[in-house]
Amino acid sequence: MRDHLPRKRRGAGRVTLNTVAQQAGVSAITVSRFFNQPEHVSPELRERIAAVVAQLGYVPNLVAGGLASARGKIIGMVIPNISGPIFANTIQGFSDTLSRYGYQLLLASSYFSVEQEESAVRAFLGWSPAALVLTSHFHSADTERMIAEADIPVIETWDYQPGRGPVQIGFSHIEVGATAARYLHGKGYRRIAFVLNSSAGDFSALERRDGYIRCTHELGLQPWVFAPQVGLAPFEAGKQAMETLMQAPSPPDAIIFANDNLAAGGLLAGQRSGLRIPEDCAVLGFGDYPFAQMLLPSLSTLKPPALEIGVMAATRVLESLGVLPLENELQRLNLLECLLIEREST
Q1: pTM
Q2: What Gene3D superfamilies does the entry give (predicted)?
Q3: Which domains does the chain have, with CATH numbers?
Q4: Cβ atoms 255, 266 nearer than 8 A
Q5: Would you call 156 helix, strand, or coil by DSSP?
């Protein structure tokens, strides 16, 4: 017969904040400040309290603390794709900067869906986060209403749209598309095509397309936009684009892809069919993914300021919360630039 061991009462023997305070020889208020406002605790006391916390294995009750103050130490962030390498540095820079001041990142992915973003925003706001960070300005009507009524800092990243209410940190996708077209035109290419993302809902890629179209018109060229089958895996979508475009009676001599995954699929498909890149067709991506420089030929691309966006977004949040001093007037718009990385594919 199975023995029934006495069940330990939940919370029994738990190390408390008062235990930490007694062990460190400080007040409970000082320990609370160590977790909630570490910048207001002297380095000597921070070191002493941290040592006791580590020794006792103390875990603060963040839920109780958040309820007591009506505001937690959590920052909610919604991005289009958690697994996408293009956003990795933004997440890392944002999280690293926050953690130095006792704040933690709560992350959700919208998978390029405004409906899923709306659901994540509603859930985050229900937890009373200290601030909310979103990607781009493309939101549902309900999300727009929620962020307009939120009494917390709201930041939009990877975007630059004058006239928006939230603080924006990013760049102009329209200008990125124009930069790509101008660069290829300057290299002597005249039949320049643009390949959209196969992921439905990537509205930022549509803005890059718009910038490309505007620039080609200004240069006296004919715009040429190809839309892969929606839902295709990126490499397959790039392959489909390259094979279809190169079958045209007068094929393009350069192709701008919406991201590096698509560009890599197109480049590899072109090589398999016997194309010489860039002699027969140049290939330009967006994102500067880790594999871009490892391809043969290496992939020319536009590198977004992903890390800078994350660090700056966290800094603006901390300034808005009064954690960091605001030396200058908070800039509502924070314009950054993408860097064109010229490699062998162009």
Answers
A1: 0.80
A2: 3.40.50.2300, lambda repressor-like DNA-binding domains
A3: 17-60 (1.10.260.40), 69-171+306-337 (3.40.50.2300), 173-303 (3.40.50.2300)
A4: yes
A5: strand
